[in-house]
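Technical note accompanying the year-one report. For the benefit of new consortium partners, we illustrate the data format agreed upon in the data management plan: each record pairs a sequence with a structure-token string. No post-processing was applied to the example shown here.
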Amino acid sequence: MEHVPLFKKGSFVKCSYQHFDYYSYMYGEDDWPYFKYYGIVVGYEWDESWYELEMVYKVYCMDGNYRFFLEDELSFV
């Protein structure tokens, strides 16, 4: 059974690193729990390296950088 991605290429999305404190060490003045990105989905693929299968999306963000997010870290704008 193939997983159908919720977000298609070209979808305009809002992104948030929900697990940011676990995967990164960020200290300073940044208010990381509310750090949001906006961008366009440019690709996606299955990632089997975590505890379970996850759909990982490549997003071209409005600041000109590519970032990767899990499906539950994205929402439609």
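Partners are asked to follow this layout when depositing records. The beta strands are 12-16, 36-47, 54-61, 66-70, 74-76.
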